[in-house]
Design goal:
The protein is an alpha+beta fold. It is built from 7 helices and 15 strands. The chain has one domain: PPM-type phosphatase domain (Phosphatase 2c, domain 1), CATH 3.60.40.10. Strands 1, 3, 4, 6, 7, 8, 9, 12 and 15 form a 9-stranded mixed β-sheet that branches. The radius of gyration is 18 Å and the shape is globular.
Length: about 325
């Protein structure tokens, strides 16, 4: 499990330390979504979006398929967006919800004017602001679909998103899919589950070990489409040389320990496509009762600073002027 993750609260224009604008970043991406061993359909999905090229890849493989999507981009000021979404609901509703989540987020971001002139302050937060707005937009669309079509009533989807620009790496969280950081041979969980058991852990009513087998383990407090309004948590991570970020649905995190994730990723740093395959294989070997989605992103840049020490500082970003986060109870230290 992640250790030494330190959080500070940030607002716009509060002096966030970011990378030099002239640092060249490359991101190497490997993604897959597997049906698992038990489910009849795949209700997970992922998103890879190169904003400048207006090019996107999504994935929800059927039974018998095991395809790993691999992409490599130079990152410009418009950025790259990655996401994992885990759908829920009866019949095909979960599959529809996760598909709507990734596609509507993609649509909303691409429909923004990428050539607009931004102030320095606007530039600093432009991609996470777009990703935040797109997440609110996706919630609206999924919620309306659930209200207007009886077969999709009550459907929802988690959403864990990542925005990468030359300035920073930003995260957005709704639900209990996760993002991990693998740095210098250690692994850190850099998102916080918006779940009932996490709330019980925060209240010191149960231990993290007890949460693993708790009867209410699958109860989440937020999902796209489940409520009329949502309150995503946004945060910023300062990348270091050779950082690897792992996004996943709970089909992986419930079946593969953080220590095993760390072992598999660090053993395959030069072949992260194989790391994807090994992660899915281990989740299936441990039961594979749920769909399994994994996105691995390696941040590459000769001018990136070397990581120092064991602490990872993740700075919460207050985007309250976009959507009110005043009542968000999960925006606490992870």
């Amino acid at each position: 499990m992640g250790i030494g993750v330190e959080f500070t609260l940030l607002t716009r224009g509060s002096g966030l330390a970011t990378l030099d604008l002239f640092i060249m970043l490359t991101v190497e991406i490997h993604a897959t979504s597997h049906i698992g061993r038990v489910r009849r359909g795949n209700e997970d999905n992922y998103l890879i979006l190169n904003v400048s090229r207006s090019k996107a890849w999504t994935g929800a493989q059927a039974d018998g398929e095991f395809v790993i999507e691999t992409q490599r981009f130079d990152v410009d000021e418009n950025g790259v967006v990655l996401a994992v979404s885990d759908g829920m609901g009866g019949a095909l509703a979960g599959e529809v919800a996760s598909k709507m989540a990734v596609e509507s987020v993609c649509e909303k971001i691409l429909n923004e004017d990428i050539d607009e002139t931004l102030t320095p302050e606007g530039q600093e937060h432009h991609l996470i602001s777009k990703l935040y707005n797109a997440t609110i937009y996706a919630n609206y669309l999924i919620h309306q679909q659930g209200r207007s079509d009886a077969q999709y009533q009550g459907m929802g989807a988690t959403f864990t998103g990542l925005g990468i620009t030359p300035d920073a790496v930003d995260l957005i969280q709704v639900g209990d899919s996760r993002a991990y950081l693998v740095r210098k041979g250690k692994i850190y969980q850099v998102t916080k589950d918006q779940s009932l058991v996490q709330q019980l852990i925060d209240a010191q009513q149960i231990s993290p070990e007890e949460a693993e087998t708790h009867t209410l383990k699958n109860v989440i407090l937020q999902a796209l489409g489940a409520q009329n309004e949502i309150y995503p948590v946004s945060a910023r991570l300062a990348p270091k040389k050779d950082d690897v970020i792992l996004l996943c649905s709970d089909g992986l995190s419930n079946k593969v320990t953080a220590a095993s994730m760390q072992r598999i990723v660090t053993a395959n740093l030069e072949d992260l496509a194989n790391a994807c395959a090994e992660l899915v294989t281990e989740a299936n070997e441990n039961g594979g009762e749920d769909n399994i989605t994994v996105v691995l992103a390696r941040i590459i840049g000769d001018d990136l600073p070397e990581p120092e020490g064991e602490e990872v500082q993740l700075e919460l970003i207050d985007l309250g002027n976009i959507h009110d986060t005043a009542d968000q109870t999960t925006a606490e230290i992870l």
